[in-house]
């Protein structure tokens, strides 16, 4: 789904900063991959290149079968709207729009201004557990709720890839867990490809693979052991079981 | 831009107006309505002043058409057979009334201290038929003392307050304080010298400096009969155009000099165009002040939303949509401003001004609005607000996404 090869990003200046050096990797469709590394290691820079909001110095990026770096600026904007879902660290909602309108906006801009899309936006908000917050403005939502609205917004145009830059960094651990579990569910239930930056070691258990960056170099790729994934399934089943029990 | 993009821009603008900063909105609308009010009212007052001046020239000085004695091929002193001529002119459609004048030169003398020493001032002496004059000009309404002349008055005059002196008006020189009932002496250019009693004094703030006697008196001084130096024609220029009127009079009086009031207005043209210029300058400054204020307000607003604009772009919203949403907002605010300004001018200020017109001595000044001024004001403010919205939005929206996102 994502094919990055020999990606380099150098910030020019008196002392040029090599934020990314010859990074290559591949993410399969339906994978949930984390990017980890120390502060300043180039995580955000990498995500910005894939998210087409920055231009690398050299290298190649394929998303699906599209050579995205060959696109014109106009086509990149269109590609972001139609094929990418971006989630930021904070303050990413439009304050003048309700939760529903925030989610619906990208669909409107894409021209899918139909009742079906509006309904889809509502379903997505229900999916992220905010079916009862449709008409609330961002200022009336908690940080975690705002972030879940942002997730719903990123999903509204059925993107090929979801990109998230430390989506839980500003949340308390409980809210962070809700958002991360949401990502896992999206990944498992909708087979959504997700690329996610995180700082927290304990987030490991939610992902399939980890790309470790260090000084702009892809240090190693860590496959999360099967056992952890198994445990994850059990945990999930357990969660489902608990819900069932509550219903009874 | 296709329909759904315009729709998205309109939606963003609508929500921003609905949920955005109230104080900014109020300030924007206030600024625009004030400048529209300024443009309309100042140009209205200046236009009113021009209109009043033109009306005053017609009412106090020249009527609509002035007919003078033959100039070509030989200059003649008088118009002959004025009675028949005027009767014929009065049959022309549109003509309301006519009157005749003799213009005499002379010196007016006053022995203030009754010791035989006269102070003389030379001036224009205009002979009128008092009743006919009332139908053409409205000088008789400017009397501040005494009475208007009667057709049979022989030894009476109506004097300008500026010449009489003591009325607090400027005159190159005056007689030192003549009042109604005082005796003065006039020495005419043909050396006829006669005593007169002052019957009335008119308010000469209008700047005529003329002394009035009756035509009968003038004919006995000039030894003329049924002649005139000039004939004034008052007409209804709403129904008959001035050009048509002049042509019809030329048909009746082929040898005479015929001048519509617009020719006389020529000497005021510089003043009138100065008023136009003032009005234009005030309008341009108003529009500029409004545009700059709007620009600053919208720019500050857009800078504050820099990150938000960056996010919109990052999720794939075209910068064109963002710029257009700002355009819609500023258009909306300026439309509201213009509307409020318009209503204030026409439903508050103007009725007030008509109820309390400004007394400028030769008439009452109230604003007069031309359609051009009304529309030009709207168009220039809308264009200004378009630019004031477009430029800052464009400046902010064109910035690189990562720059907008960073704090
Ligand atoms: N616009 C820029 N100009 C110059 N250098 C930059 C710019 N943006 C980032 N850098 C540098 O590039 C390097 C990588 O930055 P990046 O933001 O990708 O790090 P990160 O891994 O996301 O760090 P953090 O965990 O703190 O978010 C850093 O050394 C940073 O200083
Ligand atoms: Mg970062």
The total tally of domains of chain A equals 1
Radius of gyration computed on alpha carbons of chain B: 32 Å
Largest β-sheet summary of chain B: 10 strands, mixed
CATH architecture of chain A: 3-Layer(aba) Sandwich
Per DSSP E runs of 2 or more residues, the count of β-strands of chain A stands at 10
Order of helices and strands of chain A: EEEHEEHEHHHEHEEEH
Describe this structure in words.
With 248 residues, chain A is an alpha/beta fold. Chain A has a single domain, classed as Rossmann fold. Chain A is built from 7 helices and 10 strands. In chain A, the strands form 2 sheets. A 6-stranded mixed beta sheet of chain A has the order 6-7-8-3-9-10, with helices on both faces. Chain A has a 4-stranded antiparallel beta sheet with strand order 2-1-4-5, with helices on one face. In chain A, helix 3 packs parallel to helix 5. Chain A is globular, with a radius of gyration of 18 Å. The N and C termini of chain A lie far apart (42 Å). The C terminus of chain A is likely disordered. Chain B is an alpha+beta fold and 407 residues long. Chain B folds into 2 domains: 192 residues, no CATH class; 186 residues, no CATH class. Helix content of chain B is 53%, strand content 18%. Chain B has 13 helices and 12 strands. In chain B, the strands form 2 sheets. In chain B, strands 1, 2, 3, 4, 5, 6, 7, 8, 9 and 10 form a 10-stranded mixed beta sheet that branches. A two-stranded antiparallel ribbon of chain B has the order 11-12. In chain B, a hairpin with a 4-residue loop joins strand 6 and strand 7. The two termini of chain B are 31 Å apart. At the A-B interface, helix 2 and helix 3 of A face helix 1, helix 10 and helix 13 of B. Bound molecules: adenosine-5'-triphosphate and magnesium ion. The site of adenosine-5'-triphosphate has 11 residues of chain A, from strand 2 and helix 1. The site of magnesium ion has 3 residues of chain A, from helix 1.
């Amino acid at each position: 789904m994502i094919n990055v090869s020999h990606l380099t990003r150098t910030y020019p200046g008196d002392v040029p900063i090599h934020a990314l050096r010859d990074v290559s990797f591949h993410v399969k469709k339906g994978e949930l991959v984390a990017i980890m590394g120390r502060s300043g290691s180039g995580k955000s820079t990498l995500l910005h290149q894939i998210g087409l909001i920055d231009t690398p110095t050299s290298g190649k990026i394929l998303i699906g079968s599209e050579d995205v770096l060959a696109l014109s600026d106009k086509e990149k904007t269109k590609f972001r709207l139609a094929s990418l879902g971006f989630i930021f660290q904070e303050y990413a909602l439009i304050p003048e729009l309700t939760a529903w309108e925030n989610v619906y906006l990208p669909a409107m801009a894409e021209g899918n201004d139909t009742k079906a899309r509006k309904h889809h936006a509502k379903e997505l908000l229900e999916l992220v557990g905010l079916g009862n917050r449709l008409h609330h403005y961002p200022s009336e939502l908690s940080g975690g709720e705002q972030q879940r609205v942002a997730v719903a917004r990123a999903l509204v145009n059925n993107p090929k890839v979801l990109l998230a830059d430390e989506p839980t960094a500003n949340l308390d651990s409980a809210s962070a867990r809700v958002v991360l579990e949401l990502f896992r569910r999206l990944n498992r239930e909708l087979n959504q490809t997700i690329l996610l930056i995180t700082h927290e070691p304990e987030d490991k258990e939610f992902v399939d693979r980890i790309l470790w960056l260090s000084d702009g170099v892809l240090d190693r790729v860590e496959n999360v052991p099967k056992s952890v994934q198994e445990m994850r399934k059990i945990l999930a089943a357990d969660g489902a079981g608990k819900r069932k029990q509550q219903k009874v | 831009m296709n329909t759904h993009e315009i729709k998205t821009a309109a939606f963003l603008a609508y929500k921003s107006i609905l949920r955005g900063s109230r104080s900014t909105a109020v300030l924007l609308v206030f600024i625009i309505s004030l400048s529209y009010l300024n443009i309309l009212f100042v140009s209205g007052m200046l236009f009113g002043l021009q209109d009043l001046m033109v009306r005053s020239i017609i009412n106090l000085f020249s009527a609509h058409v002035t007919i003078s004695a033959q100039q070509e091929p030989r200059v003649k002193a008088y118009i002959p057979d004025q009675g028949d001529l005027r009767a014929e002119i009065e049959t022309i459609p549109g003509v309301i009334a006519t009157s005749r004048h003799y213009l005499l030169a002379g010196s007016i003398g006053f022995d203030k201290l009754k010791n035989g020493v006269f102070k003389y001032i030379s001036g224009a002496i205009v002979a009128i038929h008092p009743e006919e004059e009332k139908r053409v000009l409205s000088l008789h309404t400017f009397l501040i003392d005494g009475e208007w002349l009667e057709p049979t008055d022989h030894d009476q005059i109506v004097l300008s307050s500026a010449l009489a002196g003591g009325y607090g008006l400027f005159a190159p020189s005056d007689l030192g304080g003549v009042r109604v009932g005082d005796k003065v002496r006039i020495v005419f250019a043909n050396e006829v010298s006669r005593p007169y009693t002052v019957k009335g004094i008119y308010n000469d703030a209008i700047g005529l400096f003329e002394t009035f006697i009756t035509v009968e008196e003038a004919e006995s001084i000039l030894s003329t009969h049924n002649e005139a130096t000039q004939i004034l024609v008052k007409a209804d220029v709403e129904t008959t155009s001035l050009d048509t009127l002049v042509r019809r009079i030329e048909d009746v009086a082929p040898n005479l000099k015929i001048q519509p009031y617009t020719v006389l207005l020529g000497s005021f043209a510089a003043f009138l165009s100065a008023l136009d210029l003032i009005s234009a300058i005030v309008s341009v400054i108003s529009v500029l002040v409004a545009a700059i204020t709007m620009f600053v307000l919208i720019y500050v607003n857009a800078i504050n939303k820099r990150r938000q604009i960056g996010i919109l772009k990052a999720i794939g919203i075209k910068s064109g949509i963002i710029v257009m949403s700002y355009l819609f907002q500023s258009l909306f605010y300026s439309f509201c401003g213009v509307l409020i300004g318009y209503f204030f001018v026409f439903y508050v200020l103007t009725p007030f001004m008509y109820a309390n017109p400004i007394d400028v001595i030769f008439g009452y000044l109230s604003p007069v609005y031309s359609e051009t001024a009304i529309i030009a004001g709207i168009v220039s403010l809308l264009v200004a607000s378009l630019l004031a919205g477009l430029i800052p939005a464009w400046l902010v929206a064109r910035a690189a996404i990562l720059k907008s996102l960073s704090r």
